[in-house]
Amino acid sequence: MGHTGPVSGDFTSAAGRAELERAIGLVDSVTDADPVRRTAAVRRLLPPELATVALTQARLRAAGRVKFGDRAAGLLFTADGLEQASRPEVAEHRAARFAGAGLGSVLDLCCGIGSDALAFARAGLRVEAVERDPDTAAVAAANTTGQPVRISTGTAEQSDWQSAESVFCDPARRSSRGRTFDPAAYSPGFEWVLQVLAGARHAAAKLGPGIDHALIPAALEAEWVSFGGGVKEAVLWSAGFTAGGIRRRATVLPGARQLTDADPAESGVGPVGGYLYEPDGAVIRAGLVQQLAALLPGGRRIAEQLAYLSADAPAAGLAGLARGFRVLDVLPYSVKRLRAELARREVGIVEIKKRGVDVDPAALRRELKPAGPHSLTVLLARVGEQHLAVLAEPVTG
């Protein structure tokens, strides 16, 4: 086994996995902070191949805690697989939709390290999973041991997806030059993914959240999913999953609060009121800012095409769909005036947010030289020909 493969051969058997886990535990027990000395110590204690694998897995597990939390300790990873893998909470949300449709099995194409296959299995589905890279397929097999999951090595294009009860596809979003945001560079290609979505009644495809709305066929539902305030992915859903004419959906996790284009919308534009709201990124990506405005008391945009909403009173029940701020003052934007106002208010901690204004928040913070015991949020916005600085404090609870 070379340095590029994280696991192979006996490391995926029960005995081999136990041996690998002991080796990873040994790596973790070496406390020397210097990576060169730490590596040398491990290599003195373990056979060369096992040392290489254990060092790689210990490093990837440490990185994997950001996405997988404590679950990372029970998983094996590849570097690319960890980057593209779905968060467990996101994968579980998607698997619940498959299970809710009454499906009993799913063909998981481009399964990577098996994070979605695990979620499908735990939701009660039988899983046939396909991964083109043998090392990654071995990782997926190790990660899904004991679950109703069968992993095979091959390409998505060669699979018999037409015979599957349902299909999930997570095309690779990396090229030879690294991560790609161009659907044309996905593997398998975006046109092939659309063929599957058109040809299978129950199918879904995970894409990058920056997908252009113009590329999405009208017959499909597009769902943007965020977790903890960050947009994680877009998912295209085929005809068997769509209902009520919904074509765009925003889902905010945890909590699974949703907005769709079938919800009431408010298109009004008006001045900054007593409260300002910044929609969650999934709401913005899905183009559902007007639907969010309808949930606010007197909700309106403060400018056309600007994703800041204002309200006359605090809104209840948004559950993560937006972040709210109580407006303290609205000033014409200038660095000098803003610096003086922050000094007057003795603001030492300033959060800077912006929409439609070409400002580097880090550079502006240095120019403002905040000092004092208080904190404040400054929301910069272009409204017509004016640049405004809204001084506000976050709404809690």
Q: Main traits of this protein?
A:
single chain; 397 residues; alpha/beta; Rossmann fold
Structure description:
- With 397 residues, the protein is an alpha/beta fold.
- 31% of the residues lie in helices and 26% in strands.
- It has 12 helices and 18 strands.
- The longest helix is centred in the first third of the chain and has 21 residues, at 48-68.
- The N and C termini lie far apart (53 Å).
- The model is unreliable at 1-9 (pLDDT under 50).
Write the layout of secondary structure elements.
Elements: H1 14-29, H2 35-45, H3 48-68, H4 79-84, H5 88-100, E1 105-109, H6 115-122, E2 126-131, H7 134-143, E3 149-153, E4 167-169, E5 174-175, E6 178-179, H8 190-199, E7 203-207, E8 221-227, E9 230-237, E10 248-253, E11 257-260, E12 275-279, H9 281-285, H10 289-293, E13 300-301, E14 309-311, E15 322-332, H11 335-344, E16 347-355, H12 361-368, E17 374-383, E18 386-394
Parallel strand pairs: 1-2, 1-4, 2-3, 4-7, 8-10, 16-17
Antiparallel strand pairs: 5-6, 7-9, 8-9, 10-11, 12-14, 12-15, 13-14, 15-18, 17-18
Helix pairs in contact: 1-3, 2-3, 5-6
